[in-house]
Amino acid sequence: MGACQVVVSFLEAIEQMDTSYDHIDCYIPRSGPLASYVAKTDRLTMRPYRRFGPKAVSRLIECLVPSLFFDFGKHVIVLGDVPLRTPQKQVVLVHQPNLQSPRVNRRVGRTMLFRIMRTVTRINARYADCVISQTAAMASGLRSSYQDWADRDCVKVVGQPPPSWFTLRQSESLLQDDSRGLRLFYPATDWAHKNHEIFENLGAFDLSDLIDRVVLTLPAEQGSHTAPWLYFAGQLDHAECLAEYEKADALVFPSFLESYGLPLVEAMVMGLPIVAADLPYARVLCGDEAIYFDPDSPAALVAACKTLRLRLLDGWRPDWSAKLKVMPETWTAVVQEFLNELDEES
């Protein structure tokens, strides 16, 4: 879902820009979250294409023999992580953290799908003229994972603001007295590296005065046998997601693996405290303003929540201004970075 939000925000921005391109073809699958996107200008044409067999098999063919699917123009922007095997000048956004090598990041997935993705990326690496990652931590991991990209020094860091639908407003419900416990929010899909298991392992702790509610964006049926303070909200639409941010005392983010961590940026924009896994991706984005914990330790998460509660009751509020200042303010600025790379002389 996070990747789809990136693509939609990107398309909305490029449609509004005055660029040197007379026409842009945007290839999307015939089904899925992006299939419903409707172009708002004649300059952008949405081209749904049929996949060959299962998604994983089709993606492999798309990357290795892309001419079977796409009619390439002068330049190519890939928002789907893996470079395409084509001679056109190509800028690739890599936001899949599992493309890092296991020897570089021990947290990455070892499934056959991710092994194949890494292999194809290595085979096609030389076709990417520029690789864009969203944080310095991810950029370092990609350079260490793919020698071709390191040798050519073609990995560039371009951060991103919240998705285009995100309303810039402040949370007003931070804990102010000790009459209730903390309300925490964790928007994340049900992938193993998102580390939802840490919440289920908090059963051994007395959290009656510490936690009021933890809201997870997992299907409601998964929460039928969990602690009463753990609430499974299911997939939220934009308005519902904003409402949960506004009701939360903090974002809790125990994920083992991220290329960026978009909810971290969303929480900063909302002025929310952040309780995050003590890992490089979070440190790069949040600096010293977040409260960190060992994502392998439920006890460490409890200790971090106690620290948060004491700070809030003492009147503390995070100041994210310095971190937000170094991020692009608009999606137009993000898209312009891509276009600048395409316009550079080879």
Structure description:
This protein has 346 residues and is of the alpha/beta class. The chain has twelve helices and twelve strands. Helix 1 packs across helix 12 and helix 2 packs parallel to helix 3 (112-124). The chain is globular and about 60 Å long. The chain starts with a helix and ends with a helix.
Integer average pLDDT: 92
Structural class: alpha/beta
Total number of helical segments? 12
Q: What sort of overall outline do the alpha carbons produce when their principal axes are compared?
A: globular
> How many structural units, i.e. domains?
2
Q: Strands across the major sheet, in which order?
A: 9-8-7-10-11-12
Order of helices and strands: HEEHEEHEHHEEHEEHEHEHEHHH
Our Rg estimate from Cα atoms comes to: 21 Å
Entry summary:
With about 350 residues, the protein is of the alpha/beta class.
Characteristics:
346 residues, alpha/beta, Rossmann fold, 2 domains, 12 helices, 12 strands, 34% helix, 15% strand
Which SSEs are present, and which pair or pack?
Layout: H1 2-16, E1 24-29, E2 44-49, H2 55-64, E3 75-78, E4 89-93, H3 112-124, E5 130-133, H4 136-145, H5 147-152, E6 155-157, E7 182-186, H6 197-200, E8 211-216, E9 230-232, H7 238-247, E10 250-253, H8 262-270, E11 274-277, H9 280-286, E12 291-293, H10 298-313, H11 321-325, H12 331-343
Parallel strand pairs: 1-2, 3-4, 4-5, 5-6, 7-8, 7-10, 8-9, 10-11, 11-12
